[in-house]
Amino acid sequence: MPEDADEFDDVDDVDGDDEDGSEPEVTIEVSGLSLYTHHGVTAAEREVGQRLLLDLRIDVGECDATLTDRIEDTIDYGQVCEAATLVAQQRSYKTLERLCAAIADRLLDRFGAHAVWVKAAKPEPPLALPVSEVSVEVWREASVD
User: Which residues contact 89 (CB under 8 A, 6 or more apart)?
Assistant: First the structure.
């Protein structure tokens, strides 16, 4: 380890802190979560199944982990992937719109994020025309009580 490497260990040594002392806003992204699922309009899609790719974006807002470097002070993206996978594999939906909405609702409920964006893509859609993928995106914001 170089002699000057420990200069980065102390958060207080980092320049560029906000003038007003506020914490930065945090967004967590997961790209290309690949799952085998049974979603689709046709009975064949729901019976045989197909690969689905999920992209997830979670607007955490201010997050203590930017200062503490502790996983307990943020949203664990491993748990996010597990929650999304459970929703995608526990039942079959006809539309990607409904699937994305169900995942977004679960992520908002479980993790208390400000907002969640979910994209579901079928890389091999059952179409007669050549396309590289079809996808649907849903954005949900937490309700303000």
Answer: 35, 37
